[in-house]
Amino acid sequence: MINIIVCVKQILDPEMPPGKFKIDPESNKVIPPEGIPLVVSPFDEQAVEAALRIKEQCGAKITVVTVGESSAVNAVKHSLAMGADEGIVVEHIIEGYDSLLTAYILTKAIEEIVAYDLIICGREAADWGSGQVGSIIAESLGIPVVARTRKIEVMDSRLKVEHIIEDGDESLELPMPAVITVSYEIGQARIPTGWGVISAARKKIPSWSLEDIGVDLSQIGDTSSRIKLLKLFTPTRERGCQIIEGKTAAEAAANLALRLREAKVI
Amino acid sequence: MEPTKFDAVVAGAGPAGCAAAYALAKAGLEVLVIERGKFPGAKNMFGGMLCGSVLAQLIPNFWEEAPLERYITRHVITFLSREDSFSIDFQSPSFGKPPYNGYSVLRAKFDKWLAGKVEEAGAIIVPGLLVEDLLWDGNQVVGVKAGGEDFPASVVIAADGVNSLLAQKAGLAEELSTEYVSLGVKELIQLPSEIIQERFNLEDDEGVTQLFDGFCTRGMHGGGFLYTNKESLSLGIVIQLSALRRMGVKPADLLEEFKSHPGVRNLIKGGTVEEYSAHLVPNAGINKVPMLYKDGFLVVGDAAGLVLTTGITLDGASFAFASGMAAAETVKLAKQNGDPSRKTLCNYEKLLKESFVLRDLETFKHSQFFLDNPRLYTTYPELICNLSRGLFTNDGKPRKRLWQLARTEMGRQKLSILHVAVDGFLGRRAI
Lengths: 266, 431
Description:
The complex is a heterodimer of chains A (266) and B (431). With 266 residues, chain A is of the alpha/beta class. Chain A has two domains: 2-226, Rossmann fold; 236-266, no CATH class. In chain A, 29% of the residues lie in helices and 26% in strands. Chain A contains seven helices and 13 strands. In chain A, helix 2 packs across helix 5 (194-202) and helix 3 (99-113) packs across helix 4 (133-141). The longest helix of chain A is centred in the first third of the chain and has 17 residues, at 42-58. Chain A is globular and about 80 Å long. Chain B has three domains: 6-69 and 105-173 and 290-354, FAD/NAD(P)-binding domain, CATH 3.50.50.60; 179-282, D-Amino Acid Oxidase, Chain A, domain 2; 369-430, no CATH class. In chain B, the strands form three sheets. In chain B, strands 3, 4, 5, 6, 11, 12, 13, 14 and 15 form a nine-stranded mixed sheet that branches. In chain B, strands 1, 2, 7, 8, 9, 10, 16 and 17 form an eight-stranded mixed sheet that branches. Chain B has a two-stranded antiparallel ribbon with strand order 18-19. In chain B, a hairpin with a 2-residue loop joins strand 16 (293-294) and strand 17. The longest helix of chain B has 21 residues, at 317-337. Chains A and B meet through helix 5 of A and helix 3 and strand 7 of B.
């Protein structure tokens, strides 16, 4: 049996009605939509799914870790409802967009958990999509990392993985402990069963503070100066319709051709 | 060992289900709530006003923490003819003091808060799961089946809303007929709060409810409504479903027509539509309230058709809270007695008969018959509007006394004194 740690993040529901998604241009921030609960980032759900498949294959203890506000406990509960064994919330609201900070806090939390053979992360969070946290954790812990993994197999103390590269797949073998990041290639994440939700609701989920895990923010410097968000906006899409007329169909077609040439389409 | 059987399984996390679950969990019972929506509140809708007095019995001083929009200090009733409108306007600062008389509420926020209270109290909510069937032991309901899993329980509380599948599965109710149900459609229209306050003559957090009778339903049984929220208006219409089918009218078209009426369009001017929603409302009153209990089984809220329709009041939420609380009392008793059979559960009906729930429905049992009268939606609103026009017209012709105007207008509407007398008599009994 191996110990797996899965890192999950709570984000705005990507499936919420687009009309509810609003941005405050003054502060360059998303205005949280009222009444719509946050969800686990879909790639992180797939990370939990990948862990559960290993558990089913060869037995594993799965611990889920998240960093966020107190409501992030719901992300852990969702993972537990899917079938993970334990969960931890590191209570800290991460301001800014520096992945190093997130990865640093997670690394500290992972070191606190001590026992780990495999760390699985989503390829990237579905909100900001930086895709760096997994790799930085591996670097900090000094262990190998494979990104965008399609298949994971545990063979004694080694892992056999297939991962996606630009023009195909690559099969790799690596020693444990290791970090692996996954996305939708791993397959559909399971929906929690009713009894899964019930037993998750009954579990006590410990909440750690930054002091608990010995995080010293001065270690990583001023994150706000490294990455600045210049402009946050929703792209506007414009559509126009022009009706090309002509006395006959042939004339209309000719006019259309002229118009298309003018627009440099043909 | 974790318990695998619940004292109560509640189907539906609306006001009725949450009230029952909250009261039971507070009393230390093992409660499971199963909600088919992705989260509590995802499927819930009402016009927009919540009366606070019943909820206050469950959660004292709830107004200090619940996400409420505005407290209602002004009530307007408006009669519409094709172009004109005539309003009765009541405003009272006394409604603006705690405990407030009523609030406008946005369900997405409010239901999320209420469900949070339920979980805080110790109940477990499983969202995204539809209760498909009941589990039986002979004639006794002993749990529910949802998503292919069994959830055993001493008592099942059906709070699954209008046209309750579970009440039907329990053999207490039949599938709902379009005669006994209305369709409500509503838009949430965004407006800055300063504009709302100015436009509706309101201070700070004060709000208004406005009910519309007449042209907006094209003569069908129903009416329009408007509620002010903090930064939006809830505007919609409620129409008898069978009438809607008979007339072959699309509710969205009616709503557009309503919005473009001169008496309405300036109220919503400059607003942007943010949300459109629709929901069924049971409206049959006491005549169609099913048997409310059987062995191991209780029906609450809309699922039991516990909605009051008087023409001026359309209230389901208070009845949902009250029936949910009565159900909780009864389940507590069943737990004490160790007997979830009908012998204990009949207490639920007794509690409802003692409270306003069944008494109000009994008092207004003639309302439906009265409200089915098409003259209420055509003749009378037109008469009132035309009469007012006559009264306020300055056209240089000799003026007539009000009574003369009324006689002329009644003649034009082909309305006899006898009609008025009959409608008046029925109305006295109904409203």
